[in-house]
Specification:
single chain, 3 helices, transmembrane helix, Na_pump_deCOase
Length: 117
């Protein structure tokens, strides 16, 4: 057997780190090349000229009055109904609007139980 080239651990570390980083840079280049020539990427659609006038915005459907607890203003009901309508649901899907029950001790216990599992 032949003698090792060096027994200095710092030189061995520098050689190993150089090899590792060169391989990582080569992998990065390969990934960029694959990303550039990716056949599964959707083709860019040809750019069309902008329309002359923006399309008119459809008027929102009238919101049916949902059962509301006392203390909730009509503005809040309208905002909640608009948010529900913007998600694609109809106004009839809102059945009730009520404030969230705030019981911090109960919620703290539930959170502790869920974090155990």
């Amino acid at each position: 057997m032949s003698q090792p080239v060096t027994t200095n651990p710092l030189i061995i570390m520098l050689i190993n780190m150089t090899v590792v980083f060169l391989v990582l840079m080569a992998l990065g280049v390969v990934i960029n090349i694959i990303h550039y020539i990716d056949p599964t990427k959707p083709k860019a659609a040809p750019k069309e000229e902008a329309p002359a006038a923006p399309a008119p915005v459809a008027e929102p459907e009238p919101v049916a009055a949902a059962p509301v607890e006392e203390g909730i203003s009509p503005e809040v009901v309208a905002v909640i109904a608009a948010a529900v309508a913007s998600m694609g649901y109809g106004a009839d899907s809102v059945r009730a609007i009520r404030p969230l029950e705030r019981n911090n001790w109960k919620n703290s216990g539930r959170q502790a139980i869920q974090s155990r599992g």
